Amino acid sequence: MSTACSDRTRPDSGQAPVTGAWLPGQPEGRRSWCVLPEPLKLESGETLPDVALAYETWGTPAPDGSNAVLLLHALTGDSHAAGRAGPGHPTPGWWDACIGAGRALDPARWFLVVPNALGGCQGSTGPSSPAPDGRAWGSRFPAVTLRDLAAAEAALADALGIQRWAAVIGGSMGGMRALEWAAVHPQRVARLGLLACSAAASADQIAFSSAQVHAITADPGWHGGDYYDAPDGRGPHRGLGVARRIAHLTYRNALELDERFAARAQHGEDPLTGGRYAVESYLDHQADKLVRRFDAGSYVTLTRAMNSHDVGRDRNGVRAALARIRVPTAVAGITTDRLFPLWQQRELADALPDCAQFRVISSGQGHDGFLTETEQVSAFLADLLA
After folding, report:
1. 115 in helix, strand or coil?
2. Does residue 167 contact residue 190 with C-beta atoms inside 8 Å?
3. How far, in whole angstroms, is CA 234 from its chain's centroid?
4. What pLDDT sits at residue 14?
């Protein structure tokens, strides 16, 4: 990866789309869809009708479903866990190096199921999806929690005929959902893999997330969440770009950024006369990529869902809730993670009665290490599934 981006295209250039969501009529790629047979009752008491989950699979299910593994993505991930970018898939697979013949997640052995989260924007029902009246849900899309996301995934498992997963595995927001799976459906989870996540959102995480939400909702293009068909044809891509810049700083590590960029100017620019520093160019590039593949409404919805994360809610607290999870579990944390610091995974592992493995993944790349340190992550997955 280069240390600076020379691309001058910025999210505030006016070239960004209203939404980066997958929309009906676009290439489907290798997605399949499951339409839930009944409205989904949410933790809030509301119901969400006509829920569809996009998902992808690798491998072949055993006759008894005993080889099914559920993989759960992070905040801006989707169902495309493996494979190249291409029509219908704006990015390569987020765990591509872990999935394939001879790899930790070998489709010859495992039937891998990867859903796009409820509230997401790459095929599953979310704010950009058509509501029953044909218009985008927009501001009418109800608040959802990670328990609601797990409930939708349980309905998907029912539709696929999977009564019990050989393993439920996730990192970051995916790890939070995996933990909820074990808490709500312990009889349906044989093994649990948790990477770079916590048992409950911390004040620090909520603070960073709230700043990102405010950046989006303060954008004039937000239109109260109903920007999909706004008369001015604008979306909140500036606010989404700012949110991504804030988020990316929490995903990476301060030492890494300093080693890569220091206080150098971007090539051909002078910060003293309005130009950018190299690290600014890098963040501009990250922002521009996200606004072209993600939806601001989904970003707000899923960020708020992460802020609501508390496995102990209505379960007599975190430690009591974790003590009831009798599922063989492996937990991994990243040495330089400043969003989900390593002590959170240590506490999680200590409180889970059947935690058989706690692994420290050494990485200079911060929280993103659960995606980038594929050799160490693959070893973790192989041990979990041994």
Report:
1. strand
2. yes
3. 25
4. 54
**pLDDT score of 2:** 28
CATH of the domain at 266: 3.40.50.1820
Q: Per DSSP, what are the bridge partners of residue 33?
A: 54
Domain assignment of residue 2, yes or no: no
Whether 231 maps to a domain, the answer reads yes
Q: What parts of the chain have a pLDDT lower than 70?
A: 1-14
Q: List the catalytic residue out of 79, 128, 129, 172.
A: 172
pLDDT digits (tens, 9 = 90+) for 254-267: 999 999 999 999 99
Q: Is 367 a catalytic residue?
A: yes
Tell me whether residue 172 is one of the annotated catalytic residues.
yes
**E strands within the chain?**
32-35, 40-41, 47-48, 52-58, 68-72, 111-115, 167-171, 192-195, 329-334, 355-361
Cα–Cα dist 56/4, whole Å:
34
Q: What is the pTM of this model?
A: 0.95
Give domain status of residue 209, yes or no: yes
The count of domains in the chain is: 1
Residue 267 lies in domain: 11-384
Domain annotation covers residue 318: yes
Catalytic hit among 284, 310, 337, 368:
337
